[in-house]
Write a structure and sequence with these properties.
The complex is a heterodimer. By secondary structure, chain A is mainly β. Chain A is built from no helices and eleven strands. In chain A, strands 2, 4, 5, 9, 10 and 11 form a six-stranded mixed β-sheet that branches. A five-stranded antiparallel β-sheet of chain A has the order 1-3-8-7-6, with no helix packed on it. In chain A, strand 7 and strand 8 form a beta hairpin. The radius of gyration of chain A is 13 Å and the shape is globular. In chain B, the strands form two sheets. In chain B, strands 2, 4, 5, 6, 9, 10 and 11 form a seven-stranded mixed β-sheet that branches. A four-stranded antiparallel β-sheet of chain B has the order 1-3-8-7, with no helix packed on it.
Chain lengths: 110, 115
């Protein structure tokens, strides 16, 4: 059974600081997705990572994938309040089903 | 708005009643997924359609749950004899034809409360 673990589950950080969210998964996969969810809202796609060493950046967020280590990271640079949300990573094992982590709840404070 | 549309947005039902949710995917998206999300958890996969064919079903999809996608367009998810444990957000997502790396776009969800 594919397991996806994120850490930390809760993160409070000050504006302007940098931090990294980690996503580990238990079986081989070459497709990893990052989503953002605001309270009471649906999921917004952030990144799709399809190969070992893939790196994608959008604004203050950068995601990377190491398929050999079964690890993806979501790096936040110079955090701003608008980034406060829950971030999920999701991995596809076989077929098309996304297996989600429990999410990292991020709060950016002044 | 041409995103994934789900109806109703909220549903309160008494235990034992049947409920049906509808999902309208993005136009021309042939892949459609249903997920369930409980408070503080990530979404859990329920089922997947490619066009009208239901190709994957999770063990979570008990015999009280049934999903259809007639004609490969909109989809319905029915829960029979609802239980309190069915209370959750039910999310629908769709993705376009193409390789396995295509991303799924999620709807706003239907929040079910079973009382």
């Amino acid at each position: 059974e594919l397991k996806v673990e994120q850490n930390p589950l809760f993160l409070s950080m000050q504006e302007g600081k940098n931090y990294t969210i980690y996503c580990n998964y238990s079986t081989t996969s070459d497709r990893l997705y990052w989503y953002r969810q605001d309270p009471g809202k649906s999921l917004e796609s952030l990144f799709v990572l399809l190969s070992n060493g893939a790196v994608k950046q959008e604004g203050r967020l950068m995601a990377s994938l190491d398929t050999k280590a079964r690890l993806s990271t979501l790096h936040i640079t110079a955090a701003v309040h608008d980034l406060s949300a829950t971030y999920f990573c999701a991995v596809v094992n076989s077929g098309y089903a996304l297996n989600f982590g429990k999410g990292t709840s991020l709060l950016v404070t002044p | 708005d041409t995103g994934v549309s789900q109806n109703p947005r909220h549903k309160i039902t008494k235990r034992g009643q049947n409920v049906t949710f509808r999902c309208d995917p993005i136009s021309e998206h042939n892949r459609l997924y249903w997920y369930r999300q409980t408070l503080g958890q990530g979404p859990e996969f329920l089922t997947y359609f490619q066009n009208e064919a239901q190709l994957e079903k999770s063990r979570l999809l008990s015999d009280r749950f049934s999903a259809e996608r007639p004609k490969g367009s909109f989809s319905t998810l029915e829960i029979q004899r609802t239980e309190q444990g069915d209370s959750a957000m039910y999310l629908c997502a769709s993705s376009p034809p193409g390789g396995l790396g295509t991303e799924a776009f999620f709807g706003q969800g239907t929040r079910l409360t079973v009382v």
